């Protein structure tokens, strides 16, 4: 249905190594066309939530032991990560993860490997990525390992875009970047959302920036959602101000 939620996470529990309970019943909804922020401090469970959605917890001896994850109303938690990419969900991992020895352009092209819609369409999308990230165009022949932190973050987002995703799970885009660059990257996320219709679920420790760009937010503490709401409301919430925005 048109107004059905895009992604629904219902009361999931995640356990690592069969003993460490990290998510203790997390529920959240990502609506189509929105930017949803997943907030919280170090170790709150943001990355684990994203990895549970994209089915990457297995590779770290983790398991979703309770709850369900639905995409367009269909259960996706048993799908291979590559199958999820085909359905339109792609994750940009924390720490950028570009292939250091490939050029920027080669990195971008690796994002298109699941596509079967021909060279012309892929090249058009490469142009689209360069329109949003002109810096990547300037650096396209450079080895990714020699580009700056900001350029590598852009490269990782650009590579995700090359799979033509409907939803991007973006982990900690601000990490290690100067404030001006953080604004630049969030500004591009907003443009991609508004102009290309890409929905985002982004995990961020930088509550201040995330709540300025997101439409909705969820705050995680020790594996539980402790607060949720419209970003504008969360920005004005006294507890959020005191504990997450550093003003009271
Ligand atoms: P950060 O911003 O540091 O990534 P986060 O909110 O994303 O924080 P997670 O990375 O999801 O938090 O970690 C949540 C908890 O799970 C932490 O206590 C962490 O130590 C633990 N954890 C994460 N990965 C594993 C793993 N592979 N095995 C065991 N415990 C893990």
Q: What series of H and E elements makes up the topology? A: EEEHEEHEHHHHEHEHEEHH
How far is it from the N-terminal to the C-terminal residue, by CA? Answer: 42 Å
How many helix segments? 10
Give me the count of strands: 10
Largest sheet: 6 strands, mixed
List unreliable stretches of 5+ residues: none
Rg from Cα: 18 Å
Strand content: 25-35%
Q: Categorize the overall geometry.
A: globular
Side by side, the strands of the main sheet go 6-7-8-3-9-10
Please provide a written account of the structure:
The model has no long low-confidence stretch (mean pLDDT 92). Helix content is 37%, strand content 27%. It is built from 10 helices and 10 strands. The protein is an alpha/beta fold and 248 residues long. Strands 6-7-8-3-9-10 form a 6-stranded mixed β-sheet, with helices on both faces. A 4-stranded antiparallel β-sheet has the order 2-1-4-5, with helices on one face. Bound molecules: adenosine-5'-triphosphate. Adenosine-5'-triphosphate (ATP) binds at residues 16-17, 20, 22, 40, 42-48, 60, 62, 94, 172, 205. The site of adenosine-5'-triphosphate has 17 residues, from strand 2 and helix 1. This is ABC transporter ATP-binding protein.
């Amino acid at each position: 249905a048109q107004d059905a939620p895009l992604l629904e996470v219902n009361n999931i529990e995640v356990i690592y190594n069969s003993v460490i309970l990290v998510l203790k019943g997390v529920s959240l909804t990502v609506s189509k066309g929105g930017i949803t922020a997943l907030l919280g401090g170090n170790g709150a469970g943001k990355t684990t939530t994203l990895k549970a959605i994209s089915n990457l917890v297995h590779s770290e001896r983790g398991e979703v032991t309770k709850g369900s994850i639905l995409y367009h109303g269909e259960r996706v938690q048993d799908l291979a990560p590559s199958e999820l990419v085909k359905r339109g969900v792609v994750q940009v991992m924390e720490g950028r993860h570009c292939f250091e020895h490939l050029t920027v352009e080669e990195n971008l092209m690796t994002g298109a490997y699941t596509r079967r819609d021909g060279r012309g369409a892929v090249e058009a999308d490469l142009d689209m990525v360069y329109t949003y990230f002109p810096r990547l165009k300037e650096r396209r022949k450079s080895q990714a390992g020699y580009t700056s932190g900001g350029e590598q973050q852009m490269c990782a987002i650009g590579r995700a875009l090359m799979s033509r995703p409907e939803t991007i799970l973006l982990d900690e885009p601000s990490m290690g970047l100067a404030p001006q660059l953080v604004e630049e990257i969030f500004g591009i996320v907003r443009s991609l959302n508004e102009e290309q219709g890409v929905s985002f679920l982004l995990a961020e420790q930088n509550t201040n920036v995330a709540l300025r760009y997101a439409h909705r937010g969820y705050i995680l503490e020790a594996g539980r959602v402790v607060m949720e709401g419209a970003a504008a409301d969360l920005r004005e919430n006294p507890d959020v101000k005191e504990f997450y925005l550093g003003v009271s």
